[in-house]
Amino acid sequence: MLLTLGFLCFFSFMAGLIDAAVGGGGLIQTPALFNFLPQYSAATLFGTNKMSSAVGTLSATRSYLQRVRLPWKLVIPAAITAFIMSFAGAATVNAIPKSVIRPLVLVLLVLMAMYTLWKKDFGKLHKPVTIGRREMAVGMAIGGAIGFYDGLFGPGTGSFLIFLFIRFFAFDFLHASAAAKVVNLTTNVAALAFFIPTGNVLFQYAIPMAGFNVLGAMTGSWVAMKKGAGFVRVLFLLLTTVLIGKLAWDMVQPWLHG
Fold first, then answer.
1. Residue 114 CB: number of other CB atoms within 10 A?
2. Among 202, 162, 229, 151, which Cα is nearest to 49's?
3. Among candidates 236, 217, 206, 232, which has minimal Cα distance to 16?
4. What totals of helices (H) and strands (E) does the chain contain, helices first?
């Protein structure tokens, strides 16, 4: 058990580091849990992952908010909507087959990466729009849609949030990452509100992993703030490319084995 825990804590640290900067820590931590603890159900592994990542996300959020000012008039309604819809997504996780969702997400990620590459100044300048009723409504719609997606499926949640905060509210990558962390924290808590009461968290693994996730998150948020929006943009594009590759591989695997 100690060797397994050691490997999981290492992957948890790396997940926290990547997640704090651009999201996508689940790409590292979730496969690690499935590889090292194959004897447990998927729900239990997802619950353990959420427990660990939620604590890391809380730490990253705290680090960002000490250095970055956010328009709470926009972010709080988006986070509340995300919380409600994430719980709804988790509750309906078996209703929509992942084989239907995966191709759509793949197309969206490709379009998002192409748009970011095409617009060279995308996310480099921070000139946020004035937050009125329309902007609050858009923020709530984004929070609700991405929250439901995170509860239902998950991969790329942080990347989608960052992209949408830049596209609709003219944030730079650094402020968009900070806002995404706040919203993502609420979706993690909503998922835990579903997983903990149903007994789907392995606390003997989740608690040590959470500690290492926090260390990774502190490192990742420090690097992001030190290097600035341009560096985070590069990381964002790299992570999106990895996401596209992973989803495409997941889709072609059944054909290769068939």
1. 11
2. 202
3. 217
4. 10, 0
- b (16+ CB within 10 A) / e for 4-14: ebeebbebbbb
By the 10 Å C-beta count (0-12 exposed, 13-18 middle, 19+ buried), 94 is classed as exposed
Provide the token pair at 255: 């054909």
Q: What is the pLDDT of residues 215-245, one digit of tens each?
A: 999 998 998 888 887 887 888 788 788 878 8
Kindly state the tokens that stand for 6. 């050691």
Helix (H, G, I), strand (E, B) or coil at 178: helix
Q: Which domain holds residue 242?
A: 2-257
Q: How far apart are CA 40 and CA 28, in angstroms?
A: 18
Tokens of 76: 């709080």
Per-residue pLDDT reduced to its tens digit, 76-118: 999 999 999 998 887 776 677 767 777 877 888 888 888 878 8
The pTM for the full model equals 0.83
Question: What's the longest Cα–Cα distance across the chain?
Answer: 53
Mean pLDDT, to the nearest integer, of 32-56?
89
Name every residue whose Cβ is closer than 8 Å to that of residue 23 and which is 6 or more positions away in sequence: 156, 157, 158, 159, 161, 162, 177, 180, 184, 239
Domain count, the chain: 1
d(CA 30, CA 53): 10
